Structures are given as structure tokens and as C-alpha cells.
Amino acid sequence: MDTMLLLVGITLVTSVVATLIIVATWRFRPAIWAADLGLPRQDPVAGFVVLVVLVLVLLGGSVAASVVAIDEFGLVGAAIAGWAVMAFFGLWDFLVIDWLIFIGLRPSWFHIDGMESSPHIYDWRHHGRESLPALVIGLPMAAVSTVVAALAT
Fold first, then answer.
1. Cα separation of 24 and 90, whole Å?
2. How far apart are CA 36 and CA 41, in angstroms?
3. Is 102 exposed, middle or buried (0-12, 13-18, 19+ CB in 10 A)?
4. Alpha-carbon distance 88 to 68, whole Å?
5. What is the SS3 string spanning the chain?
6. pLDDT tens across 122-143, in order?
């Protein structure tokens, strides 16, 4: 049971750290996220840097989960644990970042010039569809994290 609790903790901490990165970049450089709302891409270099940082955070969480899981659950369990980090983040992104913060609370600093004209801004289904790729992106992440876990043990 301790392993499962640790896996849940890793997954939750990874999602919270990724959320803090997203919220902080939206607070201080909102133009990075323009393309997510169907607006013209405004800051591609900074957007790429943030994307790389997010991928590294999520990959780190995935690897940590796989390393923890491999001894008790084997390779398949390690792969599932690695994938679960990304899958959970997809759900977390949809429910916490998109629904609760962006659509529900609507803080005044969550603003990009021209975003009011975006058809996707408060479309709950659009945000749900945008979260689905995390399930697929999690597959190669799980493969990498399982290999790393296997090499580390």
C-alpha cells in the first residue's frame, strides 16, 4: 500500500508543478498560450521553451513513478505508472486549469488581447478535446520511463 500512496503523491505533485508553470506563464507572458485559443501564435520561442519545461516535468514524474513501481509491479506496472502520470495530468488540466480556473473563476489576469473573439474561450467541450492528447502522449512517455526504470534497477 505504501507504493500506491507514493505513486499517487508523485502523480499529484507532478500535476501541481505543471499547473504552477502554466499559471505562472499565463500570468506573466499570456501571449505564449494564444494558439491554444485559436488566436495567431504570438510568442513562439517562449512557447517552445515552456513546452520543453512542461515535458521535462511530466517526464520526470513519469520516470519517478516507473522507478517506484517497477520493483513491486514489474515492467508492465512500471509502464502503467508512467502512463498514469500523463493521463492524470490530462484530466487535471481539463478539470482544474480549464474548467475551474479558466472557465469557472475567470481571474482578470487570464487575458490575451483578442481572446474574447475566440470561439473556444469558454467552450467546455473544446477544452475537453484539447486534454485528450495527454492519453496518447503518455504512451511514449511511459515507454521511456519504463526503460529508464529498468536500467536504474
1. 18
2. 9
3. buried
4. 17
5. CHHHHHHHHHHHHHHHHHHHHHHHHHHHCHHHHHHHHCCCCCCHHHHHHHHHHHHHHHHHHHHHHHHHHHHHHHHHHHHHHHHHHHHHHHHHHHHHHHHHHHHHHCCCCCCCCCHHHCCCCCCHHHHHHHHCHHHHHHHHHHHHHHHHHHHHC
6. 777 777 787 778 788 888 989 9
Look-up of cell digits 504570438? 42
Q: Where does residue 116 rank: exposed (0-12), middle (13-18), buried (19+ CB within 10 A)?
A: exposed
Q: Are 59 and 145 in contact (CB under 8 A)?
A: yes
Q: Model pTM?
A: 0.85
- List Cα–Cα distances, 83 to 63, 118, 145, in angstroms: 10, 32, 9
Give residue-wise pLDDT tens across range 38-80: 677 778 888 899 989 999 999 999 999 999 999 999 999 999 9
